[in-house]
Write a structure and sequence with these properties.
Blueprint lengths: L4 E6 L5 H12 L2 E4 H9 L3 H8 L1 H14 L5 E4 L8 H8 L2 E7 L2 H7 L15 H16 L2 E4 L5 H12 L4
Parallel strand pairs: 1-3, 1-4, 2-3, 4-5
Helix pairs in contact: 2-4, 3-4, 4-5
């Protein structure tokens, strides 16, 4: 497997899927959204999988989906919980560069308006602040690059991403 993929990681609501599809189109690469791949493989929305099967089973499914990706020349937008599965995220990292799409806690909260139906892997007693505190160090750990998309427009975030990756915009 060649190391020419671009893997986007970050908080729920950070814009990974939107950025990823735009980046893939701009660079004429393929695009994979791991959340959509999970839903397609299981035949249910993320939230239903979490409700029906539990958080641990969801993370197993997510890990298996990440391990099944053997693509090249692909932008891969991961789910926010991808970094909770070291085996899966390391598999993706081995195929390219990993970019942490960074946003603040306040922006994450303002962007997530459907917390009960979005399919966020979060323990009942954890809350968004706990999720943010737990995952931020993992995004830092697994990223090769970081793009700050806090308090900027989607267009500015995209330009920042291209700049971080050193592509012309």
């Amino acid at each position: 497997m060649r190391r020419n993929n671009i893997i986007l990681i970050g908080m729920p609501g950070s814009g990974k899927s939107t950025l990823g599809s735009k980046l893939a189109e701009h660079l004429q690469m393929d695009f994979i959204d791991t959340d959509l791949l999970i839903e397609k493989n299981v035949g249910r929305p993320l939230q239903r999988i979490i409700e029906d099967d539990g958080l641990e089973r969801f993370l197993e499914i997510e890990n298996d989906v990440m391990l099944s990706i053997n693509s090249s020349n692909t932008v891969i937008a991961t789910g926010g919980s991808a970094v909770l599965s070291p085996e899966g995220i390391n598999h993706l990292k081995s195929s390219g560069v990993t970019v942490y799409v960074e946003i603040s806690y306040e922006n994450m909260v303002s962007r997530i308006n459907n917390i009960k139906t979005r399919g966020i892997v979060m323990k009942d007693d954890e809350g968004l602040i706990g999720l943010f505190a737990k995952r931020t160090p993992l995004y830092e750990k697994y990223s090769d690059f970081k793009v700050n998309c806090d308090n900027v427009t989607a267009k500015e975030c995209f330009k920042n991403l291209l700049s971080v990756l050193r592509f012309k915009h």
